[in-house]
Amino acid sequence: MNGDVLFFKTNKFIYLSIFTPIFILYPVAEIEVLARKEILVFSLFLIYLLIPRSKIYKNLSFTIFLILSILIWEPIIFFFPLILLFEIIERKIKKLDFHFFKTLIFFSPSLLIAVVFIFLPLSEEKWNIMSSVLENEFGQNCYMACGLLKSKSTIAQQFQANNPNYSFEVFLRYSLIIIIGFFPLFVLCKNSVLKYKNLLFFKEFKYINNVFCIGLIPVLVLFAMGYDWGRWVNISYVISALIVFSLLKNEKINLNTAILKQNFLYKIKGKMFVILFIIFCFGWNPKTVMLGDVASFPGYRIPLKVINKVFTGEY
Predict the structure, then answer these.
(1) Distance between CA atoms of 134 and 50, rounded to whole angstroms?
(2) Pairing assessment for the beta strands 192-194 and 253-255 based on DSSP bridges
(3) What spatial distance separates the first Cα and last Cα of the chain, rounded to whole Å?
(4) How confident is the model at residue 34 (pLDDT cuts 50, 70, 90)?
(5) pTM > 0.70
(6) Per residue in 128-171, pLDDT tens?
(7) Cβ-based neighbour number of residue 1 at 10 Å
(8) H/E element holding 173?
(9) What number of other Cβ atoms are within 10 A of residue 186's Cβ?
(10) Spatial separation of the C-alpha atoms in residues 103 and 185, rounded to whole Å
């Protein structure tokens, strides 16, 4: 057991998966992301993962997490399939039985709220009232998310707004960002095995990362609807990483250390690994919006940006 703990703490892929530019370093490189609503969702999810896993606390906290998350940031619904896969592992669900459908019931309150948002969008009259209250009572202009409630209130408008921005360059850039950024976490998943065998959905695939990738497919709808592709990549990675790290920590999945050590990256040692680590983790970062090019060498720009923000209030 002590050897496994030591390996977990010294595993190179653990370090790379934590310091990949699309995880905790992303909101530091793109400081405006720190004020986004998904930060609250991450915090709620992390709290839920840390709550003792007794039946009473588990079910109640899970339902509360889903409800609060959908109220704070509606697109979290696209990550529900991935969260459901996590619950299947946590609850050791092996088939479509009462245990599985009882788990689905915990999703129902948040799904009902989402249905209300979708089919009862804010009318222009109510939007004007909201805008007036924000401006007169709080001195705030109605912009960004509030403004989108008027200009992109329907599902069709969400998709139409993104069409002019599509290009081969955009798809290629973000394909590479996802492949490179997710690579360490992908390797960890590929070289991990479930502690409990024959779990629902997972028993049909050789590698657990294949199941998680399928669970992330609905997020493609979010990419089609939204402009902030850098944020969507970051959110996808954060939720995926929190799930994988939680499963590893609680030994619901176990690393196959013998095979992992055969990976060519794991064999890189000493100064060469340090150089690789610096280039991979601090040599680039995706921008927030889909048309933004990949930033280079944020390793020195990030501290400079933080200093400017703290002392001058400017980016």
Answers:
(1) 36
(2) antiparallel
(3) 47
(4) confident
(5) yes
(6) 777 777 777 766 665 555 656 555 555 666 667 777 888 999 99
(7) 6
(8) helix 168-190
(9) 20
(10) 27
